[in-house]
Amino acid sequence: MFQHALLDEFGALVGIENLRFDEQGLCSFFVDGRTPLSIAMANERWVLSLQLEALPDLAYRPAMDVIKRAPELTQEAMSGAAPLLTWHPDLCLPIALRTLPEHGTTARAVADAVAGLIEFSTHCQRQLSC
Questions:
Q1: Which of 15, 90, 101, 118 is the most buried (most CB within 10 A)?
Q2: Closest listed residue to residue 118, CA positions, set 72, 56, 50
Q3: What is the domain count for the chain?
Q4: Could you give the CA distance from residue 109 to residue 71 in angstroms, rounded to a whole number?
Q5: Structural domain that includes position 97
Q6: Exposed, middle or buried, 123 (CB in 10 Å: 0-12/13-18/19+)?
Q7: How far apart, in Å, are the Cα atoms of 15 and each of 10, 12, 39, 40?
Q8: Where are the beta strands (DSSP E) in the chain?
Q9: pTM assigned to the model
Q10: What are 94's strand-pairing partners?
Q11: Which letter does DSSP use for residue 18 in this model?
């Protein structure tokens, strides 16, 4: 299957062996050994999600309050042209998302999107810490 081959190629590119989708279609690993990143396929798109580090008071704020603190971070996100800051209701944590089209995406494009997502999440983390 194309997705598995691309996942293998991405793993080789970033130095992570044996990346696989689980039975729910999710591939998760740690960035820098501590930040969970997940890759999934949904609606013919690669969906990359990265958990932001927990901030002590975020669990007590409504999700929209978190998003409103950095409204510029959510522009263009629905089109996949830019990352999206959103709230994970089960984890009670902010997460950064990025999507890529399933067809025509290369391992290099996934690696670049992951790097951009890490940069975006670092920026978000600083914004939310204020």
A1: 118
A2: 50
A3: 1
A4: 26
A5: 2-129
A6: middle
A7: 8, 5, 16, 19
A8: 26-31, 35-42, 45-51, 84-88, 93-101
A9: 0.78
A10: 87
A11: -
Residue with tokens 């940069």: 119
The pairing of beta strand 35-42 with beta strand 26-31: antiparallel
Residue-by-residue pLDDT tens, the chain, 130 positions: 578 888 999 999 999 888 998 888 889 998 888 888 999 888 888 889 988 876 555 555 555 455 555 444 444 555 566 788 877 777 777 888 898 888 888 999 999 999 999 998 888 888 776 5
Give the whole-angstrom CA distance, residue 17 versus residue 11. 6
CATH number, position 105: 3.30.1460.10
Smallest Cα–Cα separation from 92: which of 118, 62, 69? 62
